[in-house]
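Sequence, please.
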């Protein structure tokens, strides 16, 4: 529901309400090391499912990564029966807003996607929230699609914790679930509504931060 409030408030209203600090954080990527252990590349496309706040911004970042073939906004962590925006917004379904990423591992590895995810796609130290959005549907979670992905995700979280890459502890959970696509009007929202206040305030700075921090990865 926060997204609807922001759409009517605009940037000036957000600044007046004290959101400036969060906006500033969204504009910077956190410098973190590459994963020590990655998923071996194969000749076939692979899938990654990641949750980290509003799926509009997550989708926008990963759509600009070289080697990513497609990104779908959706829900994971709950049942098919409750996989709708109206139901998930109640914060009682167990779902997280997530993105399903099809990528070519010969161009970009799973570990590299995780590096982008932790560095700039979201803040892995925020518990059950991201920026202006709060609730368990906005949690930080990784949904591995293979045992190799699960091992890589768990080890990378441990690596980042041990390196004190962030000022606060990482709260990202490695979970299991089934991905369900979101409604059509949520798909490619960033591209279809570039002037939407929420996109301008929260997601365009995030994409800009990705491009600045990972120029060789950006399309």
């Amino acid at each position: 529901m926060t997204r609807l409030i922001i759409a009517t408030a605009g940037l000036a209203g957000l600044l007046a309400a004290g959101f400036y600090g969060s906006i500033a954080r969204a504009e910077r990527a956190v410098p973190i090391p590459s994963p020590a252990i990655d998923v071996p590349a194969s000749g076939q496309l692979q899938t990654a499912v990641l949750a980290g706040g509003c799926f509009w911004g997550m989708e926008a970042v990963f759509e600009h990564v070289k080697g990513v073939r497609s990104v779908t906004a959706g829900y994971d962590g709950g049942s098919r029966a409750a996989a709708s925006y109206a139901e998930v917004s109640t914060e009682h379904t167990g779902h997280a807003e997530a993105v399903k990423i099809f990528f070519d591992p010969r161009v970009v590895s799973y570990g590299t996607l995780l590096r982008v995810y932790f560095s700039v796609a979201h803040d892995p130290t925020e518990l059950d929230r991201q920026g202006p959005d709060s609730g368990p549907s906005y949690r930080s979670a990784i949904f591995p699609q293979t045992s190799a992905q699960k091992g890589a995700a768990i080890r990378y979280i441990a690596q980042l914790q041990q390196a004190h890459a962030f000022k606060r502890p990482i709260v990202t959970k490695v979970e299991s679930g089934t991905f369900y696509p979101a409604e059509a009007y949520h798909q490619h929202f960033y591209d279809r509504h570039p002037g939407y206040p929420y996109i301008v305030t929260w997601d365009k700075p995030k994409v800009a931060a990705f491009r600045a921090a990972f120029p060789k990865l950006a399309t």
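Strands lie at 46-52, 68-76, 96-103, 129-130, 133-134, 140-142, 173-174, 180-181.
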